Amino acid sequence: MVAEVSPLAGQVIDPSMLVNVPRLVTAYFSGRPDPAIPAQRVAFGTSGHRGSALNNAFNEAHILAVSQGVCEYRRRAGIDGPLFIGIDTHALAEPALASALEVFAANGVEVMIDENGGYTPTPVISHAILSYNRGRSSGLADGVVITPSHNPPEDGGFKYNPPNGGPADTDITSDIERTANALLEDGLRGVRRITLAQALRSANVHRYDYVGPYVADLENVIDMAAIKASGVKIGIDPLGGAAVHYWRPIIDRYGIDATIVSDVVDPTFRFMTADWDGKVRMDCSSPYAMARLIGMRDNFDVSFANDTDADRHGIVTRWNGLMNPNHYLAAAIFYLFEHRPEWGAQAAIGKTIVSSAMINRVATRLGRDLVETPVGFKWFVDGLGSGAFGFAGEESAGASFLRRDGTVWTTDKDGLILGLLAAEITARTQVDPGQLFHQLGEELGVPFYERIDAPATAKQKSILKSLSADQLGLKELAGEPIHSTLTNAPGNDQPFGGIKVVTENGWFAARPSGTEEVYKIYAESFRGQDHLQQIQQEAQSALSAVFAAKG
């Protein structure tokens, strides 16, 4: 019952599969979402509102309503500094930016857009917010990133970052969501709006250099001098995303030996290879979507890619190819806490509940506290902001960490620094991150981890979200007694929207996707690949039985 891999996986996209961009953009402006249909309402998941204009889930009406919702939230919260806004390279990003600017300017919000009309990674927006707010107690800035992350080319996304620089928490997104849906239901009559031409001429919209400050500050979080001195040979694939125009300034400023394997930007993403299900998805943790860079592994000492808004990372080493995201997190954590002497002795490690138990073992080995949270980077914002977390990461290849002096860098995921960290590890230890993880495995045990997706209806996803240990009814998993069955994260006792079953040498967790008709099964074994597959099969069998029993 494991999700079947498409025969198209890892193959260059057939032209017949490419999104029709003119049709998509036309649908954005002409589509009329019906707020009586749940799938056509504004809905903020862990990374903002996402959807496609082709099914009336991400249209002009949504962005006008959400932007007005942000304006009203800002007024209620007393946020009156500039709003930093960035977009990625998805086809719907430019139209959505136009809609947002029309509303923000009409509401008197000071908006900072890229000075060259370019793309801006999610971590750069977080960095800009925190840099502006440093030392201020009033006139604070916030931000918006228009991106659906690694989702397919036909999707759009809109996420809000408050003055703490990280993803908005549920209280904030619920506030914006309620306002936006009320506006949709009222035919947008409460939306203040001017034309795009008026907005761009207004005193409220400002051109801003996002590239320069971020690039200049990188040496304070990554040992760029060590990378240059070592001569480590680096390959970089932006996957046609928002980081595409950041890498050349980084290479030139710091003199590192790096090659950008492609700087092509195309909203159809025709240069991608298909993901596991045959779809176009810029998932830098997928061996199928990363086939191009994996094929170049022997050309570089270490190479890496980012997803479309550059908040995720994919690390490829000459030694073992594409690293499992959890393996890289474990290696990165071990390296950082051994090579950042100015980090506080109390700086902890943050991880999501579905991330590898290898991180737990590394934390014990380092003598550091570990905090496990529900899925979503918002749970790490305060800890990174205060320095309580030295490192925070999640299994989906998203993480950030402190500056070298122990102060905050970003409070959102930063795929650029995680890629550069792989180069720093290689430069300073003379082993690449894959080899470092191998060494850790010899000492702490070798984990076999995998996440798979399985089809699920809306009803099944709802059942899974509220499933309890009693309803699941498992006493044993893959030949081992169950130690615990969790529905709340142990680090903060918050529900994580799914269920986790743990034994001595393995575990699985299941939770519904917020954007697709699938549920996600995360599983890990410290006894081998066969044991992992047994865990996966028993997990799916148990969940299928629950779905069948509940109709």
TrEMBL record:
<feature type="domain" description="Alpha-D-phosphohexomutase alpha/beta/alpha">
    <location>
        <begin position="324"/>
        <end position="440"/>
    </location>
</feature>
<dbReference type="Pfam" id="PF02879">
    <property type="entry name" value="PGM_PMM_II"/>
</dbReference>
<keyword id="KW-0460">Magnesium</keyword>
<dbReference type="Pfam" id="PF02880">
    <property type="entry name" value="PGM_PMM_III"/>
</dbReference>
<dbReference type="InterPro" id="IPR005852">
    <property type="entry name" value="PGM_a-D-Glc-sp"/>
</dbReference>
<protein>
    <recommendedName>
        <fullName>Phosphoglucomutase</fullName>
        <ecNumber>5.4.2.2</ecNumber>
    </recommendedName>
</protein>
<dbReference type="GO" id="GO:0004614">
    <property type="term" value="F:phosphoglucomutase activity"/>
</dbReference>
<feature type="domain" description="Alpha-D-phosphohexomutase alpha/beta/alpha">
    <location>
        <begin position="213"/>
        <end position="317"/>
    </location>
</feature>
<feature type="domain" description="Alpha-D-phosphohexomutase alpha/beta/alpha">
    <location>
        <begin position="42"/>
        <end position="182"/>
    </location>
</feature>
<dbReference type="InterPro" id="IPR005841">
    <property type="entry name" value="Alpha-D-phosphohexomutase_SF"/>
</dbReference>
<dbReference type="InterPro" id="IPR016066">
    <property type="entry name" value="A-D-PHexomutase_CS"/>
</dbReference>
<dbReference type="InterPro" id="IPR016055">
    <property type="entry name" value="A-D-PHexomutase_a/b/a-I/II/III"/>
</dbReference>
<dbReference type="InterPro" id="IPR005846">
    <property type="entry name" value="A-D-PHexomutase_a/b/a-III"/>
</dbReference>
<dbReference type="InterPro" id="IPR005845">
    <property type="entry name" value="A-D-PHexomutase_a/b/a-II"/>
</dbReference>
<dbReference type="GO" id="GO:0008973">
    <property type="term" value="F:phosphopentomutase activity"/>
</dbReference>
<dbReference type="InterPro" id="IPR005844">
    <property type="entry name" value="A-D-PHexomutase_a/b/a-I"/>
</dbReference>
<dbReference type="GO" id="GO:0006166">
    <property type="term" value="P:purine ribonucleoside salvage"/>
</dbReference>
<dbReference type="InterPro" id="IPR036900">
    <property type="entry name" value="A-D-PHexomutase_C_sf"/>
</dbReference>
<feature type="domain" description="Alpha-D-phosphohexomutase C-terminal">
    <location>
        <begin position="497"/>
        <end position="538"/>
    </location>
</feature>
<dbReference type="InterPro" id="IPR005843">
    <property type="entry name" value="A-D-PHexomutase_C"/>
</dbReference>
<dbReference type="GO" id="GO:0005975">
    <property type="term" value="P:carbohydrate metabolic process"/>
</dbReference>
<keyword id="KW-0597">Phosphoprotein</keyword>
<comment type="similarity">
    <text>Belongs to the phosphohexose mutase family.</text>
</comment>
<keyword id="KW-0413">Isomerase</keyword>
<keyword id="KW-0479">Metal-binding</keyword>
<dbReference type="GO" id="GO:0000287">
    <property type="term" value="F:magnesium ion binding"/>
</dbReference>
<dbReference type="Pfam" id="PF02878">
    <property type="entry name" value="PGM_PMM_I"/>
</dbReference>
<dbReference type="Pfam" id="PF00408">
    <property type="entry name" value="PGM_PMM_IV"/>
</dbReference>
